[in-house]
């Protein structure tokens, strides 16, 4: 999206390397408000209250939500709790379920000491796919790696 002629993403990792920033979609088009997500509960709230909207963005927010949960506790149990909490926000959202399954799959064999870093990498890739999905026509994406 462009804001005052400047390209801007709807979700990104802040300069501190931990906070996930989003454009609060509930405030558009009248205001541009950036919200920082610092915890799993922040991500749960952002998805549940529709601060993030659109299937690919919801998936990206869920992926970053898993990373934020892992930052609090990298254990297998906490990973499961994060996935469950985020899944409950929008039970019918296909992209959300896909992103949560992908995060679980990607992180299941990663040591707890590396989980947060790996979670941020995979969440970033999912967010990048959101940008690509919104940039290219749907017919192009059917033949690309993004939908396989």
What can you tell me about this protein's structure?
This protein has helices at 40-48, 55-72, 76-87, 94-107, 112-135, 138-142, and strands spanning 2-3, 6-7, 11-13, 20-23, 34-37. With 148 residues, the chain is mainly α. The chain has one domain: Four Helix Bundle (Hemerythrin (Met), subunit A) (Up-down Bundle), CATH 1.20.120.420. The strands form two sheets. The protein has a three-stranded antiparallel beta sheet with strand order 3-4-5, with helices on one face. Helix 1 runs antiparallel to helix 2 (55-72), helix 2 packs parallel to helix 4 and helix 4 packs antiparallel against helix 5. It starts with a strand and ends in a 6-residue tail after the last helix.
What about the largest sheet? 3 strands, antiparallel
Specify the number of helices.
6
**Which consecutive residue ranges, at least 5 long each, have pLDDT under 50?**
139-148
Number of domains: 1
Tell me the series of helices and strands, N- to C-terminal.
EEEEEHHHHHH
CATH C-level class is: Mainly Alpha
Q: Look at the structure and give the mean pLDDT.
A: 89
General shape: globular
């Amino acid at each position: 999206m462009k804001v005052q002629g400047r390209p801007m993403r709807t979700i990104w990792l802040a300069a501190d390397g931990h906070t996930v920033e989003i454009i609060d979609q509930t405030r558009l088009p009248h205001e541009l408000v950036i919200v920082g997500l610092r915890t799993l509960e922040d991500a749960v709230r952002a998805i549940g209250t529709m601060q993030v909207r659109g299937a690919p963005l919801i998936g990206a927010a869920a992926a970053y939500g898993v990373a934020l949960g892992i930052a609090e506790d990298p254990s297998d149990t906490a990973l499961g709790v994060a996935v469950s909490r985020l899944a409950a926000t929008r039970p019918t959202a296909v992209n959300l379920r896909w992103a949560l399954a992908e995060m679980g799959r990607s992180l299941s064999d990663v040591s707890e000491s590396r989980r947060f870093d790996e979670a941020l990498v995979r969440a970033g890739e999912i967010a990048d796919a959101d940008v690509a999905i919104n940039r290219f026509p749907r017919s192009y994406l059917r033949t690309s790696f993004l939908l396989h």
